[in-house]
Amino acid sequence: MHQSKLIRLLKQCSTHELKLFKKFVHSPYFNTNSSIIELYQLLRKAAPDFSPKRVDKFKLFQKLYPNAAFSEKRIGNLMSELVKLLELFWQMENLQTSPIQQQIDLAHAYQQHGLLSYWQQNIDRAEKVIQNKLLEAADYYHYQLLLNLEKHQVIEDEGQRNQEPNLQAVNNHLDTYFLCNKLKYYSKVLNYQGFKSHSYDIRMIDVVLQEASCSIYQNEPAIQIYYHGVRTRLSLEHEDSFKALKKLLTKHCHDFALAEVQNMFMLARNFCIKQMNSGIKEKYNLYARELLSIYQIEINEELILDKDVLPPATCKNIIATANLLSELEWAVQFLVQFKSKMDSNSFNFNMATIRFQQGKFKRSLELLQQTHFTEVLLLLATKGLILKTYYELYITYADNFDYEDQLDLYIQSFSVFLKRKKEVLTKRYVYYDNMVSIVKQLFNLSKELDLADKKIVALQEKLKHTKSITEKAWLKRKLMQMMK
Questions:
Q1: Domains held by the chain: number
Q2: Would you say residue 48 has pLDDT above 70?
């Protein structure tokens, strides 16, 4: 029984949910079977672990029916009914979190009972909530469509042929609802294809893009944001759409639910990153600056926090961009400002990257040694920076043989780590494995007393043709510094 659907569902309930569900099960409107009440009371005592011993169906049956012979069917039926009640309870709880849907459903009930004055009151309330509540764009258009369908149904039921039955409004909101969703999910398709090859059959997208470009939708910010966002994903030449997207995001960043706004900003950031990776130096510098500018809009508008916490990956990306542009003072101020919104690992790692950029390698290493990430990508980034720091200390303090030994040992330990995590790291394994390999060759070359330039040139050529490698720009600089 401990592997049954019922137990799996109950395990996912919080203590608060289990308490509320008790009231639900006891309600005679939803349940009149006293055996189900008793069964739930017994199971609730086994929460939260619901160990096999405490949810043994034979023992439960004996407690429920002390004078009856065990029946698999009987206990199974009780369990099934309790599952149905729990599912209904979840549905009711979800409805409680949607005041707009409640108003629309209540309006519909009044309409069915012919109480149109109360129907109108609830329609008005729903419209007011829609306008005052921050929603995801698709939800906004969906509720508008439902409201106008209600209005259409009332006019049609009244049979007033001389009154237009609200069909224009219904179709308008149907169009905006469809366009918004189509563009939103097409942008997700393009984003997914950006890091993993997958074939999709997205129908009507050309028609959707053409329709979304029409002037009738110019006052629909969500449609405009997703339209320009899609265009930035389709081609790097669509810089006009990037400018339009940035302007729209700046103006409407508080018009939608926070999670959706954060995803909208990601569209703009991804375009900058693609331009930076295009191989055109002028574009790299220009869009690195644009990327930081977008992050600064998000920071100033208080859009970067997730449940009042600054996500480590977001912090890392912001600081990396600031470091790239040598905005080190700004980066330090940013970290200090948001220190209370991040954990110590994130703070130490990002401050270490700034100190590294400032050439304060000893301080950088001290901070990195206090950093203990468990998330594999952040752990990799930390190890990569430690490797760079050991190399810089070895070069800077050539007469200190301790740094030489530490670098040698770290190269070995990093290689072992990568091999051990090869299956987990997948594509990232190659990038860091190649980095470690080049650093090892740099280290070996640096120890040669009479180093020939041709060996450095050979390693430069190897680096040039190694596409899957992290920290390529830094490695290039280290090789150039070795040239006589």
A1: 2
A2: yes
Residue 72 resides in a domain: yes
Q: pLDDT tens digit string along 21-32?
A: 999 999 999 999
Query: 235's torsion region: left (phi>0), alpha (psi -120 to 50) or beta?
Result: beta
CA distance readout (Å), 42 to 30, 45, 63, 93: 19, 5, 9, 23
Residue 13 falls inside a structural domain: yes
Q: What is the pTM of this model?
A: 0.83
Q: CA–CA separation, 430 vs 439, rounded Å? A: 14
Last residue in a domain, options 96, 125, 147: 96
Q: How far is CA 124 from CA 64, 113, 128, 153, 164, in A?
A: 51, 18, 6, 16, 20
The distance in angstroms from the start CA to the end CA of the chain is: 75
Output the CA angle 390-396-400, nearest 5 degrees: 80
The residue from 44, 77, 96 where one domain ends is 96
Residue 90: domain span = 5-96
User: Cα(426)–Cα(323) distance, rounded to whole angstroms?
Assistant: 28
For residue 38, being part of any structural domain is answered with yes
| Separation between Cα atoms, residue 238 and residue 231, nearest integer Å | 6
The predicted structure's pLDDT at residue 197? 82
